[in-house]
Amino acid sequence: MHATKGDQLVQHGRVVGQHDKVGEIVEVMGQEGNPPYRVRFEDGHEAVCSPGPDTEIRHKEIRT
């Protein structure tokens, strides 16, 4: 998984009724775009994330 600053990180809900969490990657802490990432979520809180299989990266140049 590779990302750059400004990409979106989407953590998909794991159970029925749980919404996806969407955040903006504000810092790539690993080498060459690898995790961990510092992410600012829509509600304003920030967290350091090492994404799992339920996570998707949406690259900023691809989003419309």
TrEMBL record:
Chain positions covered by the region annotation Disordered: 44-64
Signal peptide from the UniProt entry: none
Pfam families given in the database record: DUF1918
Superkingdom of the source species: Bacteria
Domain DUF1918, residue spans: 1-57
Transmembrane segments: none
InterPro entries named among the record's database cross-references: DUF1918
Coiled coil location: none
Feature: compositional bias, Basic and acidic residues: 55-64
Protein name: DUF1918 domain-containing protein
